[in-house]
Amino acid sequence: MRHLDIVDLRADYGSHTVLERINLEVGKGEIVSLIGPSGSGKSTLLRVILGLLPPIAGEVRIGGQTIDYRNKRDVKAIRSRVAVVFQQYNLFQNMDVLRNVTIAPVKVKGRPRAEVEEEAKLLLTRVGLGDKLKSYPDQLSGGQQQRVAIARALALKPEILLLDEVTSALDPELVNEVLDTIRDLATEGMTMLIVSHEMAFVREVSSKVVFMAAGHVVETGPPKQIFDNPQMARTQDFVGKIL
Ligand code: ADP
Ligand code: MG
């Protein structure tokens, strides 16, 4: 079943078209990875899905339902169905770990604190931080902070998780703990659209890889095709440079 469906999507920044005729499907429980040079429009695509930049043309469908980005109710609904984690984790520095994870479900969704806290503790245990509930962000490593950010996104019980270069700001020795967390989510069947430069990881976890360049989808295929036998010259060029 198609969970996230992007059809002929176009988005502009002012007079500059940054995404053109983007087509992409993510099945339920599938992991699709977006790769491509810097500036190719990967982050912009995630921003459009979240309603942070309204599309000029085309459609985004979630579970078969077309999102009307001019409709505030639709945009609000999408923010609770789709969660995002960015490269910069932006935790609240003045709140402990538990509070960072519970604040949105309690304040935005109005859910009972005790119930949300129980769920948050489970989530934090799941990302390996069950013993850090009372720590503050500046007492944690970058990898730990990024895992708090992932737990915070999951606390909203999203159907779909978008991850934008979540390991790019981390020291190399901290990358794996975050990738392990993502691997676990994959095993549990979370639908994910991932932007990542960790090509070995992309190759391992993705059911499909989408190569973008200059605002277009150049090639889509299983990791084996994209990395071992790319069909398009631009994909060959990119893969040749990074591997
Ligand atoms: P990627 O994530 O693949 O590196 P981006 O989606 O960030 O690429 O950027 C795609 C294009 O959009 C680039 O040409 C970039 O300069 C431009 N761009 C990104 N953000 C903005 C913005 N806020 N205003 C204007 N142009 C932007
Ligand atoms: Mg980006």
From TrEMBL:
Subcellular location, principal: membrane
PROSITE patterns noted in UniProt: ABC_TRANSPORTER_1, ABC_TRANSPORTER_2
Name used for this protein in its record: Amino acid ABC transporter ATP-binding protein
GO molecular function terms noted in the UniProt entry: ATP binding
Domain of life, source organism: Bacteria
Coiled-coil blocks: none
Protein family (similarity comment): Belongs to the ABC transporter superfamily.
Membrane topology: Peripheral membrane protein
UniProt domain ABC transporter: residue ranges: 1-239
Keywords (A to Z) from UniProt: Amino-acid transport, ATP-binding, Cell membrane, Membrane, Nucleotide-binding, Transport
Cellular compartment(s): Cell membrane
InterPro entries: AAA+_ATPase (IPR003593), ABC_ATPase_HisP-typ (IPR030679), ABC_transporter-like_ATP-bd (IPR003439), ABC_transporter-like_CS (IPR017871), MetN_ABC_transporter-like (IPR050086), P-loop_NTPase (IPR027417)
